[in-house]
Amino acid sequence: MYATLADLLACHDERDLIQLTDQSGAGVIDQARVDNAIRAASVIIDGHVAMKYRLGQPAPLLTEIAVALAYHRLSGDTPPDAVVDAKKDAMAMLAKIAAGTIKLDQGEEQLPARPGAIVIAPRDRHFSRDKMDGF
């Protein structure tokens, strides 16, 4: 996963996260709902970035994107305009990373070929110049 609850708390007020996640009325952040939102954000990020980079540690930019996407998901059906704009910006950033116009400062570009790759060898030509000589 590209973000944690601590990353969300660094960008958003704890009261807001309690309001968005606490369905039982206990007055605390529901860690399971936060984890689900972060997991969903991570899947979106992987879909854009995994073909270009293999990351050990999440790049700080990806953590920022994950926080924006997770917070949008936690915000429900009618998120505030600022949250919608943050999601749009995050998605635009992912598109630029996938296109290669923004390069992450970590990770290995171009994953090596997978084992068992298909190799195609050409056959000899049936009608080569040598075989057709004299016709």
TrEMBL record:
InterPro entries for this protein: Phage_Mu_GpJ
Superkingdom per UniProt: Bacteria
Record-given protein name: DUF1320 domain-containing protein
Organism of derivation: Sphingomonas paucimobilis
